[in-house]
Design a protein that fits this description.
This protein has a two-stranded antiparallel sheet with strand order 1-2. The chain is mainly alpha-helical. The chain is built from 11 helices and 2 strands; from the N terminus they run αααααβααβαααα.
Length: 196
């Protein structure tokens, strides 16, 4: 929706409002109708830079990523629980947590600025319990400790299988670029962005 309404007339805005009104409360239908109103030449693909520059845990990009994970039956690792099940447990606190793949505390030992760590390219969505279990451990050590089925769960969010070289602190920038590109491609495809 980048700058979609900037400088728009009331008539243009009403076209979107009317589309939602026609959906009559059906959330899926209203989302689809709203999205369908966006001109094809405004459906920009998500770029690698968009992912790398998205620091907020509750940013629109992270919300799209969570919807992507939910739609693709992603699992929290190492437990292997479906995120959709974790999400619907009605816990008082938020049952989901954003896990820093390269943990802040671990990377600060190597003088990596926190700003570089707080990016969607370094985030995975896990259950609170799994996030606590992984803690601030080195990502390479975490990967090596995972069983085959746990690696499969992790790979769904990391967008790679068997790339232990990307999980070493020396490859942090390469990891961010690789994962940001994969996230951008997968989210764009899932949302139908840039198709025309």
């Amino acid at each position: 929706m980048r700058s979609l309404f900037r400088g728009s007339s009331e008539t243009a805005v009403n076209g979107f409002v009317n589309a939602i009104a026609k959906a009559k409360g059906d959330q899926v239908k209203s989302c689809r109708m709203l999205f369908d109103r966006i001109p094809n030449n405004r459906l920009f693909k998500i770029r690698k830079e968009d992912v790398r520059n998205a620091p907020g845990l509750y940013s629109p990009l992270m919300q799209a990523y969570l919807a992507f994970l939910y739609a693709n039956d992603a699992k929290s690792w190492p437990s292997g629980r479906l995120l959709r099940h974790v999400l619907h447990e009605n816990l008082q606190a938020d049952p989901l947590a954003v896990h820093h793949i390269f943990p802040k505390q671990h990377m600060q030992e190597f003088d990596i600025p926190v700003d570089l760590l707080n990016t969607a390219a370094n985030y995975a969505v896990l259950s609170q319990a799994d996030n606590a279990e992984l803690g601030d451990r080195d990502p390479f050590d975490v990967w090596r400790s995972l069983k085959a089925n746990q690696r499969e769960c992790a790979s769904q969010q990391l967008f790679f299988v068997g790339r232990e070289d990307l999980l070493r602190k020396e490859a942090f920038d390469e990891f961010l670029d690789f994962r940001a590109q994969k996230m951008a491609e997968n989210l764009s495809s899932h949302l139908g962005l840039g198709a025309s």
